[in-house]
Amino acid sequence: xxxxxxxxxxxxxxxxxxxxxxxxxxxxxxxxxxxxxxxxxxxxxxxxxxxxxxxxxxxxxxxxxxxxxxxxxxxxxxxxxxxxxxxxxxxxxxxxxxxxxxxxxxxxxxxxxxxxxxxxxxxxxxxxxxxxxxxxxxxxxxxxxxxxxxxxxxxxxxxxxxxxxxxxxxxxxxxxxxxxxxxxxxxxxxxxxxxxxxxxxxxxxxxxxxxxxxxxxxxxxxxxxxxxxxxxxxxxxxxxxxxxxxxxxxxxxxxxxxxxxxxxxxxxxxxxxxxxxxxxxxxxxxxxxxxxxxxxxxxxxxxxxxxxxxxxxxxxxxxxxxxxxxxxxxxxxxxxxxxxxxxxxxxxxxxxxxxxxxxxxxxxxxxxxxxxxxxxxxxxxxxxxxxxxxxxxxxxxxxxxxxxxxxxxxxxxxxxxxxxxxxxxxxxxxxxxxxxxxxxxxxxxxxxxxxxxxxxxxxxxxxxxxxxxxxxxxxxxxxxxxxxxxxxxxxxxxxxxxxxxxxxxxxxxxxxxxxxxxxxxx
Length: 522
Fold this sequence. Notes:
A hairpin with a 4-residue loop joins β2 and β3. The radius of gyration is 28 Å and the shape is elongated. It is an alpha+beta fold. It has 2 domains: 99-361, Aminopeptidase (3-Layer(aba) Sandwich); 373-510, no CATH class. The protein has 12 helices and 14 strands.
């Protein structure tokens, strides 16, 4: 009997322990949920400080495979008073903690997996949502998709909407399941940061065509005062001006208007911002904003984000208190570049850009001299050819490093050839960097986008002076390039490397010695 009582007591004790553990876990879960709910409602900004971002190293010259004796640079390298680097953010940027920046990207992927141009989708909508939790404001900032830019961590010059492709196919691409687009969005965030003066963008939402259609249909379409005739995305309906009900297929067609439009992206991006606010207003007026996180979370495809459900919920809860009419819309803009070089660029107006950043973030941004018509002139005079040759030399230098790492024994004569080639490479590399930096700094504050016949006499005179400077630098780079070509030929021959191409193959943007990643737009 005593044994039975003892067994029963042990059983009851065991159940009590299990019950206490379950109760403790339940209490902890409730506390966690309450704490999360409190942060979502009262302190949404506290949910946005742990995003994982792509770390991008700076581009540098190739390190030598052997010890290189001290050398005198062919061009004196001077440190300018003001550093304006188009591939990095200003060091003195004090970022406002109360502002959350989210990239909103629309990719031109069709329902069948094809794209509107090229073999991979581009970000044909690049918008930054700046949410100020302290001042209770939201700014929608459009960046021109055709902005002449760099792709952080990769050499070359791209359109902003092509940086997505560099992310997908470049050295920082995400590994994992097929179709993972995270690296494309992440690199687009890094590129957009350059244009916001170094302000960080840690989060993104991406939408393809079908996601836009599905989303608009899911909220019951939208009544909208159409300002421009257009054809639905599917091409089977035509819409005129005036107030009318638009389903998802119609909204997508409207957002992508080109037919009978003014042909400028500025008008199209303005329509996109207005439509976004109209959708927000509908969701708010019909008390459907709270459904938004669940709709995004439930999407099987077409919507891409690195935010959590809690973070999206926090954003939506914050937005509940925002008057749609108080959302501020802004856009960077600039002159359309020449089509004679095949790619059509936007040279962002730097004063507009600097003013915009000051108004939204309260910081003083530096101008970006690389995004100018004058700097593009420098690229086509000598810059693109120089980059082609530098990267050809680097291939041979890297091949030597690979052979050395594999145990190959180099003769003294080969090491001497390598030393000569490496010195010539550094001379060319440093001269090109120095000349480009000087010109970039000058054009950052002296960029004339108007047609030449409308320049002032002072602008014409300055341009003449800089043209002579470019000519002087071009002749020096050709001299250094010829020296490097001679020493490279000897070194390459000694190690059996014969795949050297010294001239640009076809269009410069198709040559991966100039643009590290080949972005296809046609």
